[in-house]
Amino acid sequence: MRIVLAVVLGRLVRVLTRLRGGGSALPGWVALKVAPHFVSYVMDRVRVGSNKPIVVVTGSNGKSTTTAMIVAALEANGHTVFSNPSGGNLPQGIASSMLAEVSLTGSLRATAVVLELDEAYGPKLVDIIKPTHALLLNVQVDQLNRFFEPERVIDMVTAIGSSASTVLVNDADDNTRLIGNRLTDGVRTVQGFDVSDELAMSGVYDAQVGFDNAADKRDPVATVTASRGSTATIVVGSETVHVDLPSPGIHYAVDAAAALGMASLVLGESANIGGAASAISALKPVYGRGESVEAFGAPLTIVMMKNFPSMQANLDALTEKPESLYLAVDEGTPDPSWIYDIDLSSIDHVDVVTGTKAWQWETRLAYAEIPVGRVEPDPTVAFEAFGSSTTPSRQPHRTAIVNYEQMMDLRRVLGYKEIEGE
Predict the structure, then answer these.
(1) Is 22 inside any structural domain?
(2) CA 90-95-100 angle, 5° bins
(3) Count of domains observed in the chain
(4) For residue 259, which phi and psi values (nearest 5 degrees)?
(5) Which of 6, 88, 100, 417 could make a disulfide contact with 31, Cβ separation 3.0–4.6 Å?
(6) For 226, phi and psi rounded to 5 degrees?
(7) Same structural domain for residues 244 and 218?
């Protein structure tokens, strides 16, 4: 009875949050208040009577995009997949995603499950989810106010990986390669995916945090061999495929290799890798990750920055300096000190800087001798000023670089009322 009530009330809240715009976690929070074991109950029913693959994806960066890619690859191979496409990777976010798909009695019509997991909550969630497969993307310097040191994240990600019988690790990242070596104990199968040495981003993508980890890499199940703009060449087993990426950048090519590698492990010899690559090529960017929306009568490309590695990777992926640039950062990035490590050579000006961290960013830009048109702490005022003061000409679009909270607010302002990622 509690499950039925949780589904009904959660769906009611879901409708209300859609009307106000965004807010994917609240319906799940309500469902969990009514039935604290809601997620566990649903996952127990998923596992009954079949050997469904249950895949979890974790790491510092790339979780949402890679999860979407795995879902596309498995669906192209005939699976009906349940996932958390909104990027809601905490318990309430996963519960919210379930509310959109479960029956009143808590059953999912899915032949596979692919879930993005937060690094910190993941060790507890895997006891409920009981994954068959785990994908470990990277461990990079991220949210020091929350995690303190990357070494703690290594332990968290190790715990997530240890919960699965098949683990796929990023062997181009020193930290996840170390985790893979830790997990290679005969209890589980550990595989790796890789990036050719000439493509790996030294100091950013391969961001080891002080461990002496000289162990050899595994024979990769997937390798990025070429990446240019929004296209990548990936070798999966004995097959070479070309993938159109949702946005430019080697980091998206790495996500695609991870997704194809995981798909090959889940599907085995029956895998249609070409079909999976085509499905990934057809994907639109995950919300805020290079997506294009309409604003002020022209396209607006939204680039979300989460931490130093993601900011640098997205800046490095720019094919030309942005003509019209908006920068918004608020308290969702509580410690912005890492901005002084960023190479800002791919931008030559910022039209408007806003958010509670606006003056910190203005100072950093001044040190780099990058001119700022206007500093306006109020994002509503700032965005209107950005629209009225810029006119795309050399480029057909404007560009906004924002943190997660500002990305969500911006999408709401632009009328995107749907729950995240749907």
Answers:
(1) no
(2) 130
(3) 2
(4) -65, -45
(5) 6
(6) -155, 145
(7) yes
- Which among 28, 33, 35 is positioned nearest to 4, based on CA atoms? 35
Does residue 23 belong to any structural domain of this protein?
no
Same domain, 53 and 151: yes
* Angle made by CA atoms 329, 333, 334, in degrees to the nearest 5: 120
pLDDT digits (tens, 9 = 90+) for 115-167: 999 888 899 999 999 999 999 998 876 555 555 566 778 889 999 999 999 99
44-57 residue pLDDT tens: 998 887 789 999 99
Question: Which pair of structure tokens corresponds to residue 165?
Answer: 């019988």
Residue-wise pLDDT tens digits, 389-406: 999 999 999 999 998 889
CA distance 81 to 113: 5
DSSP H helices, 184-305, are 250-267, 273-281
Rg (C-alpha) for the chain, rounded Å, is 21
Do 232 and 322 fall within a single domain? no
Is 208 among the domain residues?
yes
Q: Which of 400, 401, 402, 374 is nearest to 389 (CA)?
A: 374
Strand partners, 147: none
**Residue 303 zone, left/alpha/beta (φ > 0; ψ -120 to 50; rest):** beta
CA distance 266 to 133: 8
Any idea which residue has 């929350």 for tokens?
Answer: 146
Q: How far separated are the first and last CA of the chain, in Å rounded?
A: 29
Residue (of 18, 16, 22, 20) closest to 411 by Cα position: 22
Spell out where 329-391 has E strands.
Answer: 350-354, 372-376
Six token digits for residue 108: 């999912």
> Within this chain, do residues 246 and 335 fall inside the same structural domain, yes or no?
no
Task: Decide: 410 and 335 in contact? Cβ < 8 Å.
Answer: no
Range of the domain at 301: 289-413
309-331 b/e with 16+ CB inside 10 Å = b? bbbbbbbbbbeeebbbbbbbbbe
Local confidence band at 367 (pLDDT 50, 70, 90 cut-offs): very high
